[in-house]
Amino acid sequence: MAELGFPSWLRTALDDREPGPAVPFVDAPDEPRDSIAAGEIRVARAMSEEPIRPRLVLVLEVFSNPAPWANVCLLSELVEAAGEKDVRALREETGLTFEVLVETDVVGPVFLAQLGPSLRAVSKPFLKGIQACLRGESADFAERLGLPVRDEREARWRFKTEEISGMHLLAHDCFEHLIHASTDDYVADVILDPVLFQAGADRTSRLVLLALDKIDRAGWGRPDLVWELPVVHSVKYWAIQLGPDEIRAFEPVWTLCLDGAREIAESDYGMATVGAASGVSLLDHELARRGLEGQRTLRVVTTVDNVELGLASRILRLHVPGVGLLQVEREFVDPVAVS
Amino acid sequence: MEELRAEYSAVRIGPLILHEVRTNLSRLVRMGGYDPEVYAGSKSWDDAEEDVLQAIVVQILLEEGQLDYIMATSSTLIDFHNLLARQVRRYLARTRQRSVVDNLLDRSVNILSDEPFETAGSGSHRRYRLRSAPPTLEVPTDADLLGAARSAAMIPRIPFAVRERAPMVYSNDALRAVLRTIAETLATSFSHHDLDWILRALLTDWITGFLIQSEGLQVAASELTPEDQLVVREAAQQIVQESTHTQLIVLRGKLESRSDQSIADELSLSRPTVIERKREALRIVEIALMDLPERVHRAVIDQLSIDLATHSESDG
Description:
By secondary structure, chain A is of the alpha/beta class. Chain A contains eleven helices and eleven strands. In chain A, the strands form two sheets. Chain A has a six-stranded antiparallel β-sheet. In chain A, strands 8-7-9-11-10 form a five-stranded mixed β-sheet.
């Protein structure tokens, strides 16, 4: 006899099939993004709080500069809408339980922080075939492309227009960042985590030296401090314990302090105090502030001993209410090397 | 959303998700004006709803894995409802597409029984070809069928609406052009089953139209006045008459969205020559449209597509 609300035909249908593993949900707990690779199928979300639902994408390439980002191609479950640039990918090619269209004409950049858990990955030959399609060489998939869209009167025209708009909403933050980063006046933001200055004078000196060296070697531009009163006090306390040689070695920090002194004088102390007092870390507060100013990706130099166990991912996703997502790329200075 | 996710993780579809599908289906068919006879072959939705519900759950959500897609990409209950509604419409569209293709097949059989086509065999073994084509025992492959569908896709269709009981899709002239294009492109005879395959491929837009609700966007040729229609036919004829055979082949290739290189290969010409012929042909089109009101421009191109598909017939 059927249970209430659970008819016998449904029971039979479920019994007749191997369910396989359930798909991961889009907001599943954060996972390390350091290993995101080309060929993976992941769910992408917009950085800003845009009116677009999460979308499946195929990762085409992954880059680390000027910030971690990936070039992705939109996937659609609407296989009936295939046009001449859309490849119908079979289940055995993607490992998914449903067919998808690989929209080779809807491609864009996203920050790695926008990518959710990996659902499956396509084979290398399949990925190469798709990359060839992007270059206009679709011979490998000729039999799986849709028919050409005649003109704008076709529903598929509107479908494609909507897909391109969707990709724009997903990609515009990263795209803008990439354009900005390609200009001559671009200087990458590198924030020195306040915890570097709270490790005791000796240890702080070594950590900060390592951090400055790392920034210099990577050519990231000028580092920045978090201009909150507790940090200022920490820096002051550390500075008065330094000898003349050390004072010279840390010149970039003093230059920062001179600039920062002006910023602090002009900043809203009230907001800084509220942020620091409400349990939010000084760094998180600073990141949120920069998010409100429009920045979407930031690099932070911090220590490994500041990282919770199991969350050693370099790339983190921070949600700032009213703003959306923020990508935080963490560069670690190794405390073992300074012990 | 969390309760739905918990149920999905545990059993895939249980009472909660089933309830969502049922509610969605019920609301859509009753408020969306879907005729139960057309979409479910039943006098009323009260009789048909349970069968349709069962088909959506088993075929679409479970067998085709669409429930997995919905769960992977929904972050809110609104996402879930929207994606579920799309799947319900998808099922209804497929049912409708089947009956539309069946109508087209019936009309096609009538056209194929007459000149310039020839019929051989009977029943399920019946095959069709152009009478003028050399006889062959070969049967078309899937790639051949897709190629034929690609060529026939340039023939214009009549706009349709969800509530239309018997959409025509192609005018008689256009359907004749579709069949002639298919027969010419295949270079083999073709069966009823082959034709069914091609027509379904040609009507992919039908399902998309249902799903993104863009029906009625098109401006139907039938909205033109009789005078407009006369002007349209004359302009299309003028383009055909003033173009050379090569220019017409190039024009037809461009209407089929083919690359310059593939047209060059077909004509054994260089790509720059094809580009030159294309420029000349487009100039002829431009001149033909120059003094005509803009509202008939598209209709002229539609008529030209039909004329080009049947051109070799009159051209010899």
